[in-house]
Amino acid sequence: MALSRLDNLYRQVILDHSSHPHHHGTLEDSSKKIEMNNPTCGDVIELQVDIQDGIIKDIAFSGSGCSISTASASMMTDAVIGKSLAEAEALAEDFSQLVQGNEVSDEEKLGDAAMLSGVAKFPARIKCATLAWKALEQAVENDGEGTAGQLHCEE
What CA–CA distance (Å, rounded) separates 62 from 77? Predict the structure, then answer.
């Protein structure tokens, strides 16, 4: 019964992030803007990141996607604000490993995003969960230099 309650909590957190995503919208000023899509399911994200002195000062996303994609983007934005680029890249790598069913050293650093570890049981949903994190990886490349970029994730 305790496991069922825990599953319900996880579902509720994911639904909350999906229904009321954090940092959803656009930024007036951003160092990077990345657009990515997942053609296998139609998820699309536009990520804007304000990087100052190697730190993610602000972040926002828009687009359309399934509940897992939207919840993951919301959770990712919460996890990386105030982090250095290196910390953000490490979180993205940890998240990728986690949703593929691999253990990571410190799940707590991922915040609510750690709750998406169950995605590993549904391989078709891994791309949904990682779309925003892949956009983040692209955005933090080159220390935030440049104003825009576009990448279509078709893996």
Answer: 12
Cα(16)–Cα(25) distance, rounded to whole angstroms? 17
Q: Would strands 32-38 and 149-150 be described as parallel, antiparallel, or unpaired? A: parallel
Whether residue 123 contacts residue 15, with contact meaning beta carbons closer than 8 Å, is answered with no
| Separation of alpha carbons 83 and 92, rounded Å | 12
Name the residue among 23, 34, 144 with its Cα closest to residue 73: 23
Instruction: Single out the residue of 110, 70, 108, 73 nearest to residue 90, CA to CA.
Output: 110
Tell me how crowded residue 36 is: count the other CB atoms within 10 A of its CB.
23
Q: What is the enclosing helix (H) or strand (E) of 25?
A: none
Q: Are 54 and 82 in contact (CB under 8 A)?
A: no
State the average pLDDT over residues 111-123: 91
**Helical segments of the chain, H only:** 2-19, 67-80, 85-99, 123-140
Q: What average pLDDT does this structure show over 96-118?
A: 93
The reported pTM is 0.87
Task: Please report, rounded to a whole number, the percentage of residues in the chain having pLDDT higher than 90.
Answer: 65
CATH fold for domain 2-150: Sufe protein. Chain: A (3.90.1010)
